[in-house]
Amino acid sequence: MAQIEFRNVSKYFGSNKVIENLNLTIEDGKFTVLVGSSGCGKTTLLRMIAGIGPATSGQVLMNGKDISEVAPGKRDIAMVFQNYAIYPTMTVRENIEFGLKNRKVPKEERNRLIDEYSRIVDMYNLLSRKPSQLSGGQRQRIALARAMVKKPAVFLMDEPLSNLDAKLRASMRIELKELHQKLKTTFVYVTHDQVEAMSMADIIVLMEKGEIQQVGTPEEIYHEPANVFAAQFIGTPPMNIIDMPNGYKMGYRPESVVFTAEKPAGDGYRKKGRIVTREMLGAETQYKVELSSGQAVMVKIADSRFREKQDVWITVEPEHLHYFDLSGVHYSHGGAPELLAEVVGGMNDV
Amino acid sequence: MSKDKTPSYVHQNKGSLGKRVTNAVTSWLMVLPAVAFLIAFVVYPAVNMAIMSLFYSNATKPYKKFIGLDNYNTLFFVKKDFYNALGNTAYYTAGALVSIIVFSVLLAQWMFRSRKLNNVAQTVFFTPHLVAGVSAGFIWSWLLSSQSYGLFNTVLTSLGLPAVRWLDDSSTAMISIIMMNTWKNIGYYALIILSSMKSIPTEIYEAARLDNASSFKIFFRITLPMISPQLFLLLITITTGSFKVFDSVRIMTNGGPGDSTRVLSMYIYDYAFQRNNTLGYACSAGMIMMIIMIVLTVFDFAFVEKKVHYQ
Ligand SMILES: Nc1ncnc2c1ncn2[C@@H]1O[C@H](COP(=O)(O)OP(=O)(O)OP(=O)(O)O)[C@@H](O)[C@H]1O
Ligand SMILES: [Mg+2]
Known about the structure:
The complex is a heterodimer.
Chain A: E1 4-13, E2 16-26, E3 31-36, H1 42-50, E4 57-62, E5 65-66, E6 77-80, H2 92-102, H3 107-120, H4 136-148, E7 154-158, H5 166-183, E8 186-191, H6 194-200, E9 203-208, E10 211-216, H7 218-223, H8 228-233, E11 240-243, E12 249-252, E13 258-260, E14 269-280, E15 285-291, E16 296-301, E17 311-316, E18 322-324, E19 330-333, H9 337-347
Parallel strand pairs in A: 3-8, 3-9, 6-7, 7-8
Antiparallel strand pairs in A: 1-2, 1-4, 4-5, 9-10, 11-12, 12-18, 13-17, 14-15, 14-17, 15-16, 18-19
Helix pairs in contact in A: 2-3, 2-4, 3-4
Chain B: H1 17-52, E1 55-56, E2 65-66, H2 70-78, H3 81-113, H4 115-130, H5 133-143, H6 151-158, H7 173-198, H8 202-210, H9 215-226, H10 228-243, H11 247-252, H12 264-274, H13 279-304
Antiparallel strand pairs in B: 1-2
Helix pairs in contact in B: 1-13, 2-13, 3-4, 3-7, 3-10, 4-7, 10-13, 12-13
């Protein structure tokens, strides 16, 4: 059981300020996913928790206690490294066994654990191989087994599935979720794949340039993005963002658009446009529509009858409209009659 | 698209006869300089030595009288001093090998740890490697001298310890020579070890720390196996190099006291150039020395190399 807290944590590499005054609490027993673009500081945060890349200033606490003085091996933490970091000179078995031996786990227990976890990651037949004789995905699976077998209080996973094929990745995701449900320990999982983040997380921590943009459940982040960045990071395709005459921004999800061939009745957000591209995805179809203002927006709906170069009308009901203020922070969702009036008055096509 | 899925390079050797001949000629031309040197300076002298070892001879008349294997008979069954030289050489080689490897690895590990000292230490320890062997031998003869100016003994006596007769005592003479050669070589070998230590990814060490491994265990389970290719290189070069040791022994003890530091190369030198009509005999000793070195190297490659971890 472990709750982790960052208090005013900063990390500098020389003069390069990677993280400044970050505050974050990672809840005990939750599957927390750190998501953000490349270089935003995800690995840096994990390394602070593990104790192998200490913060320049600030505190990292585990269950309320400062752990800066605790050696990495005594923290009850296991980490899957982004580049696996498996021991090249040891066989698969020795790799998995190394941490157990150092913790003085008895021999029969070790063998039983190695057996169990090498089967979970489907590496049982390759236990006597050396890492140089394995593929990237197989190495990644050893790294996973090596971490899981230790049954730590905190799992740190740095993009642990990035090198697996789609099928194996899907099954490992389920495996990890089940493991989490079984162990009920704290998982901190790094990815830059937002689909993975949405599907696996209890809590998503969205980061950009060393700053936390939003912390919330997948539903919260999807429905109530805290700012333009969050709105555009989550969702495929991301939220459409449109500049308003007063400098505010308006946004709506491609999924909340209603498409018609004729001009729809009523008021609200109504725009005329022309379909530029059309992608049939199966249950849904994705269209790129160029509005009369010249801006392109994405639309994702079940209806696949529309064709390229066709003129269409876009309708978005007020409850699906988001507004962001001058600094990009979420201002209102659905409400804001004064802004809606501006949309209707100043922005609609006729 | 062609049905043939085999990549085109597989067919390279099936080209026309002319092309194949051109290929062969080019390859041979490229290795020719190296082969020429090898023949002129290694193969030819070795063959010559083998032939001369069958003769009773001196430097002016290298083929004075053919005596078959008589020289070898004398070497193995008549004289006893060859075994003494061989034993001394083995002692020196084993001592130098262990001492140089252990101290180079320790030095490298130390320089690897403390980055600031690293540059200074590298220079300090590397400098002896640049000193000519003869000069280094002289310097150490003075340092180890039993006379009043010998630094080692001055330090020992000032600490209240008994003086040691380093080079003048048959039990410490060889050890002194090993010390000198360790001092002279560790800077160079530590550099090789250090660069291979630096190529080990740091994440592996971090993973080991998370796996609760002690520094001791990290060194023996991770560092050592990771630098084993370089250790193997050291094993080969130090073994063959030490087996041929000559200049430092010649300067520091000249084989003495008694014959306690007379190594093989000095033995051969003595019989070849210091005595009358024993050039052929020296050649037979040279042959044996060459064969032992070949056997040692083959042994290293056949058995020790299996333990080496290659990426
Ligand atoms: N050892 C280091 N020295 C200097 N800068 C570093 C070092 N490690 C990381 N950085 C910098 O810190 C920033 C954050 O790096 P980090 O590895 O945490 O990114 P990340 O979010 O894990 O990215 P990715 O998704 O690509 O793995 C980057 O800009 C990187 O250049
Ligand atoms: Mg990373």
